[in-house]
Amino acid sequence: MKTDTRVQRGKTLPLNKILDGDCIERMNALPAESVDLIFADPPYNLQLRGDLHRPDNSKVDAVDDAWDQFSSFGAYDKFTHEWLKAARRLLKPNGAIWVIGSYHNVFRMGAELQNQGFWILNDVVWRKSNPMPNFRGKRLTNAHETMIWASKEEGSKYTFNYEALKALNEGIQMRSDWVLPICTGHERLKNENGEKAHPTQKPESLLHRVLLATTNPGDVVLDPFFGTGTTGAVAKMLGREFIGIEREEAYRKVADKRIKAIRKFDKEALEVSASKRAEPRVPFGQLVERGMLRPGEQLWSLNGRHKAKVRADGTLIGDDIKGSIHQVGAALEGAPSCNGWTYWCYKAEGKKVPIDLLRQQIRAEMRAN
Predict the structure, then answer these.
(1) pTM of this prediction?
(2) In contact, 289 and 175? CB cutoff 8 Å
């Protein structure tokens, strides 16, 4: 993916770059309303007390870096307020944000999101299929993290690729609890010394699901806590633009090397199953106007029990019942509702053909034009 320097509101937008420095300062220097989605994995403020050891007395490589340490909850809340304020300024009116955290910080972030006017859409539980055990045996094994998905405003028309997520889940509606493994094996990035490059590296499967669900190809995704670049790597694969901000040089080096090795999917592979709600609306009367069905032509129900006649104004009449394709179907079936497009068929060469095929033909023409 080549570097793009798109200009927004008189300022340069540094696409597909990793910016160094403080995330708040960097975000405040970017043009307002220039980003479609933000994925933020901020410091968790774990408040660790001393070293943690396994039963064999080996030390656990826990998160004890300086960037995760704050003097108090008040200091952490101030930091959260400032970076979320900067993030909100960057989002387009129909933009959205994902934040991820543990029980140490996610509730504080959730309250601040609401305080600043974000509208929470879902909280998603990432249930780790291979969590680290609780070595001290004094608490439950911490086997999940929580993500909050929020739109910029209550009325924002945020992106949600419902059908794509459903297809990803073998035709079943995607739930808000996601069972995915943590980074292990080849996916776990190592530094020059063969150690973990980052203690909280997120798996690509998690970001794949987030970006597939809530962005489209060409959208701009910002990650203000870029780390080793999982967001950027997945964004590049999926044909999204990214902006990363990371103050730690060691992480930037690992992320840059990682992203340069990523191959972008081809255009056909980037297409996802579209939501039916996103399809152009086609009134049934348009089929009559265009002569695809004629006034007086007979329609049959898919189950063969009922029939109705097409009228010139695009309504039906059957058994003294008049109305739309949906109303007549529901009345004949004694049902509260009916999808007339899938209920009614016409006959062609002696075979019943769903009228929805005619609607799809018109939609294909509309997309071509």
Answers:
(1) 0.72
(2) no
